[in-house]
Amino acid sequence: MTDTPRCEYRLDLTHVDAPDTAQSASPAAGARHLANPPDGAVMREVRASDASALAELMLDAYSGTTDDENGTLDDAAAEVHRFLDGEYGDPMLGSSFVCESGERILSAVLTSHWCERDTPFICFAMTSTASKRIGLGTALLSRALSALRATGASEVRAVITRGNTPSEQLFMRTGFEEVK
């Protein structure tokens, strides 16, 4: 586990539109639309069978970043299984999304129920190195926020490693505020 400080963020979901279905989710306030998704890319809900592909994504996405713990694929797989097994709260797969192209997951947002705060929690937001800066993270986070709003949730929380500028910008751009 990294010794770098982590900061808690909160978003009031009452200002996020709840779609008729999660598939037609509209972006949260301030979120940009996905401009140029890769050819053949599809966004869908996370499935437990995505575990191996999510581990590969996690290892790639965190490599060389503030959150890089010099882990292996086995370490990433264990982390994904901890999420799926409920160690970070009950997984909310209906509010967790991936963008995939073929059999490769390019980006993911994984959501659980944070029991301590009794609120949804964005556990992981990750995008492959080759797919960064094209709006996948924003699109998936916006879809997750809309899906959470559709469940009746009034807020959502996230914890971000201080200095993870891309994540800090992504969450702040979609309306999250740091909890002081």
Describe this structure in words.
This protein has 180 residues and is α+β, with helices and mostly antiparallel strands. It has a single domain, classed as 3-Layer(aba) Sandwich (Aminopeptidase). Helix content is 27%, strand content 26%. Strands 1, 2, 3, 4, 5, 6, 7 and 8 form an eight-stranded mixed sheet that branches. It is globular. It starts with 5 loop residues before the first strand and ends with a strand.
Summarize the structure.
By secondary structure, the chain is of the alpha+beta class. It has a single domain, classed as Aminopeptidase.
Query: What string, H for helix and E for strand, traces the elements in order?
Result: EEHHEEEEHEHE
> Can you tell me the residue ranges where pLDDT is under 50 for at least 5 consecutive residues?
20-36
Largest sheet: 8 strands, mixed
By DSSP (H or I, 4+ residues per run), the number of helices equals 4
Q: Any idea of the CATH class?
A: Alpha Beta
Q: Write the CATH architecture name.
A: 3-Layer(aba) Sandwich
Q: Which term fits the overall shape?
A: globular
Roughly what percent helix? 25-40%
Q: What is the residue-averaged pLDDT?
A: 85
- CATH third-level topology: Aminopeptidase
Number of extended strands: 8
